[in-house]
Write a structure and sequence with these properties.
Helix content is about 60%, strand content about 10%. The protein has a 3-stranded antiparallel β-sheet with strand order 1-3-2.
Length: about 150
């Protein structure tokens, strides 16, 4: 990204400018990621966030929807919408939590497994394209800085 996209203010280290740059960058990276996903042979209902849901469920196996929402950093109602769509495509199923009748678990269907494997490959290709101009050391530093942001509170 060029400086013309993000003009520097008098104080480029100000928290406000860093936040503004992070928001703009996140938006642009998300748009590029979605664009790259759309060029590949995945069903159109598999957006980036829905893929994250499937990948999280595949990582944890059966997972409570409330835990899935926490892992993804979204509201429970958002996870419900994602699960509704993915369940409608026969990629996820809901079931009662045997340890807590009030909780609902989700798990993958057999139909989801090949799609998840393909999605992992697609996501890796998209990520490599997005970060191709960033060195490994810079990527590691970026991860450290982003992790610091999530621990501030």
């Amino acid at each position: 990204m060029s400086n013309s996209e993000f003009p520097f203010p008098a104080n480029p280290a100000s928290a406000a400018f860093v936040l503004q740059t992070l928001i703009k960058t996140t938006h642009q990276v998300h748009r590029e990621f979605e664009r790259l996903l759309s060029t590949l042979e995945l069903p159109s209902y598999l957006t980036g966030p829905r893929l994250r849901v499937l990948l999280d469920v595949s990582q944890f196996g059966n997972i409570r929807m409330s835990d899935l929402a926490k892992n993804l950093g979204v509201e429970a109602r958002v996870v419900t919408q994602y699960v509704d769509t993915l369940e409608g495509q026969n990629l996820l199923v809901r079931m009662a939590d045997p340890n807590d009748r009030r909780a609902t678990l989700v798990k993958l269907t057999d139909e989801a497994l090949p799609i998840i494997e393909k999605a992992r490959i697609v996501m890796e290709k998209a990520a490599e394209k997005i970060f191709e101009g960033i060195s490994i050391d810079s990527r590691k530093q970026l991860i450290q800085h982003l992790n610091q942001l999530t621990q501030v509170r």
